[in-house]
Automatic annotation (TrEMBL):
GO biological process annotation, one example: tRNA processing
Occurrences of domain DRBM (ranges): 166-235
Sequence ranges assigned to domain RNase III in this UniProt record: 9-138
Essential cofactor(s): Mg(2+)
Protein name: Ribonuclease 3
GO MF term set: identical protein binding; metal ion binding; ribonuclease III activity; rRNA binding
Pfam families in the record: dsrm (PF00035), Ribonucleas_3_3 (PF14622)
Superkingdom as given in the UniProt entry: Bacteria
EC class of the enzyme, as a word: hydrolase
Length: 238
């Protein structure tokens, strides 16, 4: 690795507030597979294995944040929120914040097609960087970097996602696991003028009402009924 490349990677280390023991690991995190396709001496070198590892590391970090910041959420809700956070959109946004695209090593064809700005490539690179950090000094270092750089973003994401949990899907999944009776939603009352209508809904499991709710639309009322059913069934806390 030449001096110019090392200096460029030191610039990223400053952004991360982390100094690699083995800077070759960080360098490897930026080798897109297309680079080896066009440079035969690098044909077996890519960041894909680091990406695989980093995906698991970040999955655990997000799980840590969820477990420690939202004690009211049960396992099913945490799983659903985590799946929405450990995703291309979230990771590509974090990669853009760190400007990871400018450190990428990729083939000419991939580069001129805008590869260094593709959300999928950026998300994969973000994972690879955290795979490299994990190999360099372990989980605690990776966690601290996320905590220092992205904690407010992660907490905001958790708050947003937990505010918009799909309770109907959660109830459906619980029903499929634990009951032979099908769910159905029934509007029991509508009140108010058209511009300010309120809907009241009961959700049935077979012939038994297991939850009731209301809202400004049928959709919101059904979600509220599903949420109250989940509370009654002790799947989630109130």
């Amino acid at each position: 690795m030449d001096k110019a490349r090392i200096e460029k990677l030191h610039e990223l280390e400053e952004k991360l507030d982390y100094r690699f023991t083995d800077i070759n690991l960080l360098n490897l995190a930026f080798f897109h597979s297309s680079y080896g396709n066009e440079n035969k001496s690098y044909k077996d070198i890519s960041n894909e294995r680091l990406e695989f590892l980093g995906d698991s590391v970040l999955d655990l970090i997000v799980s840590d944040f969820l477990y420690n910041s939202k004690s009211s959420l049960k396992e099913g809700a945490m799983t659903k929120i985590r799946s929405q956070m450990v995703c291309e959109k979230s990771f590509s946004n974090m990669a853009k914040y760190l400007e990871l695209g400018k450190y990428l090593m990729m083939g000419h064809g991939e580069f001129i097609s805008g590869g260094s700005e593709k959300p999928s490539v950026l998300a994969d690179t973000f994972e690879a960087v955290f795979g490299a950090i994990y190999l360099d000094s372990g989980y605690e270092s990776a966690f601290k970097i996320v905590e220092n750089k992205f904690k407010s973003l992660f907490i905001a994401e958790i708050e947003t996602k937990s505010s918009f949990i799909d309770y109907k899907t959660m109830l459906q999944e619980n029903n499929q696991k634990n009951s032979r009776d099908k769910l159905k939603y029934k509007i029991v009352k509508e009140e108010g003028p058209d511009h300010d209508k309120k809907f009241y809904v009961d959700v049935y499991e077979g012939n038994l009402v297991i939850g009731s709710g209301f809202g400004s639309s049928k959709k919101h009322a059904e979600q509220d009924a599903a949420r109250n059913a989940l509370i009654k069934l002790r799947v989630i806390n109130e």
